[in-house]
């Protein structure tokens, strides 16, 4: 096979203007116009509207290219588009090749009789996406999330491009993945299916090869182990037993060794095509068994049930060509730095590039993979069914060999909203839903990945509209906190089996806000700030929670900081509760990891890559061995300042959760202290934390606690080393009588030393550009010193603050 990437010689024309701009492929319309200065930054202030209006045009990509040597002499020439966004007519040398209509698909055209030896002219005419959904907005299937543009479900394009409650309406267009010209030299490998059978401490690998080939073609296959040793597969059948296999594990459970399978097509001893993939030797399913609480729902890797810790991933930029492998690596490595072992790829975006999954394989991140259907109703016509079946087949075949893939999920929240009477709101739509997600799509997934686990939707109890968000079975989305305006402690009422979505919104830091505003814009309730707050009630909800927990911030910078602490504390309440219930609950994936543009959202890492308070909290609450505290105070009881009953006593219960493969001897120390750190009562407890379990300590009443001035601290020690430190207070922070901690800091080598004279909550260390990444931040500390390492950024222009400064 001769392969030629057609990435040079492209131009872009907008509408009927006639002007052509030099264009990059892969790329997009917005990226091209920005590069040539023909549009303003769509993220700046309210430029989104002008950028959206550009999408009312059609766009023409034109390329003049000469085939690489030998391609025109091949028996067959193919032109492959790995991704066109979205509706386009394609022609080569004036002859139509076909129409494409799905950005999630791969399209291949036979151009054997159209290809010229010299210069060829390739034209891709892309139709207006906004024009299309406008024309189809009144059709039966064009119903979905009110945060997006009407008609978005009618187009197989990343739904969030049309707006969501965390992102703008910027439905970019273009050729977003590579274009290849292929010269077929007598044989072409169409597909290789790798199957694994794990028995008796060995792995039997079998290969199924399909090809377009003449008689006389032979296939030679090899397996290269992680140390570089090569073993040949026999020709027929292509099966190989791997003795003493090196198993692939999720992060925290073992290593991530990767093997390479290579298949070569040979004609008369000459290699004419090659297929190569990295694989991991592992079994992966979801354990669903009857138990005392209903039915289990847990990732089971190599027979071990894993508690999923992580977050939901959305496209990392509205301009997809800016999502580079380097940027993806930084994001996923930052997820690992926060002790993630799982990422959920949400169904309203797109299927990420191979680089995303390669990194997840290397880093040991399990992937919950949604199919790209979210918050909408679809009319299942025969043409639509063929389109989505081809889409799912393309992506399952592309991704199935990645060991990181833990499950395939049909959609996001549609079964849930059907139960609530939204969108899937008629007998026909309910029938179409069942047919799509419980018949057609699982059939395609299991046809191409027969060893995979398929789940009909998220949340779901298994399908059939049977209590899809029930807590006894399947996965749960919990929005009681935030959308439901419940206190953080409401999470403790959730006894679900796997919490795949929950979260709390915050603003990014001031430096990020300055990147899309002018000074006069910087008011939380002003026009520009609210253009970057896409949750319809987001401002009101954040204000309500702010009033409930903190004193009123005196300026924007403090308000942004307070919003991040609210977010971090809210999610901490949830995760710590879910982890304390390990065995019953087996997953905590918060919404969301990242952003597609700068603004208010539920992310723990903002658009610029800056860590919010939540990401540091995640580093602590996803620690493999976690000591957490279930306090019983005025806040946790929901009593309020004027409703504390006579004789009520604060209390607490500690819990050690061990998400490692071995038992861990530990020492737990807790102390009730006054606000100056002086001990009023303390205890030391020695225990053995069992592997993959949670161990509760005895409940302790604290009648001597002054709930407005005392803090409970708790520390976990392993082998004489402090593994974790935590602190809780028994009232909302606004009612606590903080003493001035007189915070200070200094730099010593690669460490920052923070000093305090009193108990300080939510200590933030930041530099002038607010781009530091530290070993810890937004932490509580007692009087004395606290050392943190600088992991990224320069410790210049340092400032520190705490909850004491929210006033």
Give me the secondary-structure topology:
Elements: E1 2-5, E2 10-14, E3 20-22, H1 29-35, H2 48-54, E4 59-65, E5 76-81, E6 87-92, E7 95-101, E8 107-110, E9 120-126, H3 129-136, E10 143-144, E11 162-164, E12 167-169, E13 179-184, E14 188-199, E15 202-212, E16 217-224, E17 230-232, E18 239-243, E19 259-267, E20 270-279, E21 284-287, E22 290-291, E23 294-295, E24 298-301, E25 304-306, E26 308-313, H4 325-337, E27 342-345, H5 354-363, E28 366-370, E29 376-377, H6 382-399, E30 405-409, H7 414-419, H8 427-448, E31 454-455, E32 476-477, E33 499-501, H9 510-514, H10 527-531, H11 538-549, H12 556-580, E34 587-590, H13 613-621, E35 625-632, E36 651-658, E37 664-674, E38 679-689, E39 693-696, E40 700-701, E41 710-718, E42 721-729, E43 744-748, E44 751-756, E45 760-766, E46 773-774, E47 779-781, E48 784-792, E49 799-801
Parallel strand pairs: 26-27, 26-34, 27-28, 28-30, 30-31, 32-33
Antiparallel strand pairs: 1-13, 2-3, 2-4, 4-9, 5-8, 5-13, 6-7, 6-9, 10-29, 11-12, 14-15, 15-18, 16-17, 16-19, 19-20, 21-24, 22-23, 24-25, 35-36, 36-39, 36-40, 37-38, 37-41, 41-42, 43-44, 44-48, 45-47, 45-49, 46-48
Helix pairs in contact: 4-5, 6-8, 12-13
């Amino acid at each position: 096979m001769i392969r030629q990437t057609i990435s040079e010689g492209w131009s872009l024309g907008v509408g009927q203007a006639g002007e052509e701009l030099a264009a990059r492929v892969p790329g997009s319309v917005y990226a091209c116009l920005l590069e040539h200065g023909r549009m303003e930054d769509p993220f700046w202030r309210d430029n989104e509207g002008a950028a959206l209006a550009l999408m009312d045009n059609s766009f023409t990509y034109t390329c003049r290219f000469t085939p690489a040597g030998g391609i025109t002499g091949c028996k067959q020439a193919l032109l492959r588009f790995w991704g066109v966004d979205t509706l386009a007519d394609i022609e080569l040398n004036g002859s139509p090749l076909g129409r494409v209509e799905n950005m999630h698909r791969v399209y291949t055209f036979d151009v054997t009789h159209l290809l010229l030896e010299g210069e060829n002219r390739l034209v891709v005419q892309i139709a207006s996406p906004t024009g299309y959904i406008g024309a189809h907005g009144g059709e039966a299937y064009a119903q979905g999330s009110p945060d997006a543009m009407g008609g978005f479900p009618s187009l197989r394009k990343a739904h969030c491009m049309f707006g969501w409650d965390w992102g703008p309406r910027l439905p970019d267009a273009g050729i977003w993945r590579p274009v290849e010209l292929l010269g077929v030299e007598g044989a072409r490998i169409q597909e290789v299916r790798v199957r694994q059978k794990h028995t008796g401490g060995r792995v039997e690998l079998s290969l199924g090869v399909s090809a377009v080939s003449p008689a006389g073609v032979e296939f030679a296959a090899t397996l290269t182990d992680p140390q570089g040793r090569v073993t040949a597969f026999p020709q027929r059948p292509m099966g190989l037993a791997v003795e003493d296999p090196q198993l692939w594990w999720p992060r925290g459970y073992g290593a991530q060794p990767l093997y390479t399978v290579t298949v070569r097509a040979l004609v008369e001893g000459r290699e004419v095509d090659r297929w190569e993939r990295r694989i991991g030797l592992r079994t992966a399913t979801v354990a669903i068994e009857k138990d005392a609480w209903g039915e289990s729902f847990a990732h089971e890797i190599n027979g071990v049930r894993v508690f999923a810790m992580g977050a939901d991933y959305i496209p990392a930029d509205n301009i997809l060509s800016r999502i580079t492998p380097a940027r993806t690596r930084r994001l996923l490595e930052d997820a690992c730095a926060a002790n993630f072992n799982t990422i959920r790829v949400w169904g309203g975006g797109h299927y990420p590039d191979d680089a995303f999954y390669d990194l997840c394989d290397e880093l040991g991140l399990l992937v919950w993979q949604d199919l790209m259907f979210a918050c909408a109703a679809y009319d299942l016509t025969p043409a639509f069914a063929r389109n989505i079946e081809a889409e799912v087949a393309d992506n399952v075949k592309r991704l199935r060999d990645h060991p990181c893939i833990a499950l395939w999920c049909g959609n996001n929240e549609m079964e849930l909203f059907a139960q609530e009477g939204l969108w899937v709101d008629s007998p026909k739509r309910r029938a179409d839903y069942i047919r799509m997600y419980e018949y057609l799509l699982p059939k395609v997934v299991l046809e191409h990945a027969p060893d995979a686990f398929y789940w009909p939707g998220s949340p779901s109890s298994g399908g059939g509209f049977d209590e899809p968000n029930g807590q006894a079975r399947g996965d749960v989305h919990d929005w009681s906190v935030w959308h439901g305006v419940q206190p953080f402690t409401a999470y403790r009422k959730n006894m679900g089996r796997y919490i795949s979505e929950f979260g709390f919104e915050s603003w990014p830091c001031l430096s990020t806000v300055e990147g899309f505003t002018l000074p006069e814009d910087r008011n939380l309730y002003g026009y520009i700030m609210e253009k970057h707050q896409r949750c319809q009630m987001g401002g009101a909800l954040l204000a309500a929670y702010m009033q409930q927990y903190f004193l009123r911030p005196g300026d924007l910078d403090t308000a942004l900081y307070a919003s991040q602490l609210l977010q971090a504390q809210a999610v901490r309440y949830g995760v710590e509760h879910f982890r304390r219930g390990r065995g019953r609950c087996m997953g905590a994936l918060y919404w969301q990891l990242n952003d597609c543009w700068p603004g208010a959202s539920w992310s723990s890492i903002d658009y610029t890559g800056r860590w919010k308070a939540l990401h540091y909290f995640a580093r602590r609450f996803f620690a493999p061995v976690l000591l957490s505290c279930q306090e019983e105070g005025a806040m946790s009881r929901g009593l309020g300042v004027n409703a504390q009953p006579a004789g009520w006593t604060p209390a607490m219960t500690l819990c050690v959760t061990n998400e490692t493969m071995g038992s861990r001897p530990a020492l737990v120390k807790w102390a009730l202290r006054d606000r100056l750190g002086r001990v009023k009562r303390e205890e030391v407890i020695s225990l053995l934390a069992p592997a993959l379990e949670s161990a509760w300590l005895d409940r302790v009443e604290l009648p001597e606690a002054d709930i407005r001035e005392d803090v409970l601290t708790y520390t976990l020690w392993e082998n004489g080393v402090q593994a974790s430190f935590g602190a809780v207070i028994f009232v909302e922070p606004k009612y606590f009588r903080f003493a001035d901690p007189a915070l200070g800091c200094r730099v010593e080598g690669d460490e920052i030393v923070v000093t305090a004279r009193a108990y300080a909550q939510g200590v933030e260390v930041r530099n002038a550009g607010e781009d530091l990444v530290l070993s810890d931040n937004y932490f509580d500390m007692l009087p004395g010193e606290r050392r943190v390492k600088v992991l990224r950024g320069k410790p210049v222009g340092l400032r520190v603050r705490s909850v004491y400064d929210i006033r």
